[in-house]
């Protein structure tokens, strides 16, 4: 959007999270400031807010802001509000509002109050009249283009608007008529009277209100004028009693204007401005907030602007906001990212004022670390090849006991069916093995995970010479618990019982972009040109019954294959659908 500054980050990727060595107690500069403020008695308690604009779905960058805003409040016994920054009526959509709330809760946080910037429109208008009466704001008739001409540049001061010296009476009259809807869009603005020569362009008599005859999702047609971001944001913070207003670095240059608004309006000293809110039943809780900036989360191989994520959806380049390849929180969730893995990412990355780009492997590493500890193990075959154990009777049926987790006995056990016909992974067999091969070859032996040692006796091919099945024998002395089970064998492979296994759709996802900097347009290309054609592959596999029974969103490690999640929307026990969340190892690092 146009009112808020754009962010950029251009440094080399960080493969090691900057704060990796930090002690469990979080010691970043923001928490230091909060600790000090409380120790000095500057505030009675901590209040923060997370203020998304409801013009799109939240993305992984927002996870950093959410964890910080809600996390700091919780750690210091304070509260955090969710405030929908809905000052820009044209762009907002209730679908986004619902998704934002869903995402914040999913990440594990809850808000003290759900607020809208539009809740404060009456108060903001009274504040605007107060500024006019104090001689701190004026109604300006310059067009948008003229305002730009008068503004000056980074090296040249601006010029005062010819309307700057209007009398208080005239300004008040015009502001009231703006509010009454007498003027067309863009005819006038209310501007702060600060300093057209300021080195900080944000202080060159910035607009506080603009005329916009547009219906608003919450206030309907009550307002033909809408407050500008800096004015609304600072005073929304003040009226909610926010003590620490945490935001990203691109707002640093706006801080003097933020402070100016808070000071000149002085909600704490002018409780009469709060009357419209008290009348609506809001509590009295104004404070003098302090804005503190931190660096954005940037991750290579991703795009993180709402605008670009929106384009991917509207142009059909992905399959919706929650496409598992998207870097929206909804997409990551559907991909199998857990709330704990994203909180871990934010902790590992840390909070600082240093702009940096985090390597994608840090994100994937957080998911692996979380799922390694928490995800039950299952067996699934994603490229099935039939193995027939010819020395077992046709009706052989067994149920083997498997641990759900190798390092966590409390995770319990499950039963895995085993019979004469099995599925194994096509890539676990090689007719002509490469050097160092440890898996199955003609005439060779391999251990079937948890079942015994088998020998490949015969390779069955179709008319085109394609391998369609293997015939083999199970060593009866190698069954679980037997002496022969400990016989030394080089390779162990996973398998799924062919009779009891359930056919499953398995979606193999990979990075959406094939280059580290999809935002880089220097080659005359855009992020659209860098979409990874291999980012989604769908295969037909088989899973053991205990995997098919999963609830949607249940994560597993499919042994030797990767971490997978039962698709949130499409999975059912009869027709299982699993998404690959992340491979077991970083295959991209191996390529590079
Ligand atoms: P985008 O630039 O992607 O459209 P935005 O900054 O416009 O996002 P907002 O809804 O205004 O989105 O953001 C809500 C809050 O989230 C703000 O406080 C903003 O600073 C923070 N935020 C947005 N992107 C990031 C990011 N990449 N890292 C950390 N915080 C972020
Ligand atoms: Mg923004």
From TrEMBL:
Q: According to the UniProt entry, which residue ranges have a biased composition of type Low complexity?
A: 1-12
Listed InterPro entries: aa-tRNA-synth_I_CS, Gln-tRNA-synth, Gln/Glu-tRNA_Ligase, Gln_tRNA_ligase_bac, Glu/Gln-tRNA-synth, Glu/Gln-tRNA-synth_Ib_cat-dom, Glu/Gln-tRNA-synth_Ib_codon-bd, Rbsml_bL25/Gln-tRNA_synth_N
- Residues covered by the tRNA synthetases class I (E and Q) anti-codon binding domain: 492-567
Residues annotated as binding ATP are: 53-55, 59-65, 248, 296-297, 304-306
Reactions catalysed, as given in the entry:
tRNA(Gln) + L-glutamine + ATP = L-glutaminyl-tRNA(Gln) + AMP + diphosphate
May I ask which residue range the UniProt record assigns to the signal sequence?
none
Domain annotation Glutamyl/glutaminyl-tRNA synthetase class Ib anti-codon binding: ranges: 375-475
One GO molecular function term of this record is: ligase activity
Q: Where is it located?
A: Cytoplasm
* Key words, A-Z: Aminoacyl-tRNA synthetase, ATP-binding, Cytoplasm, Ligase, Nucleotide-binding, Protein biosynthesis
Q: Which family does it belong to?
A: Belongs to the class-I aminoacyl-tRNA synthetase family.
Q: What is this protein called?
A: Glutamine--tRNA ligase
Which species is the source of this protein?
A: Pseudoxanthomonas winnipegensis
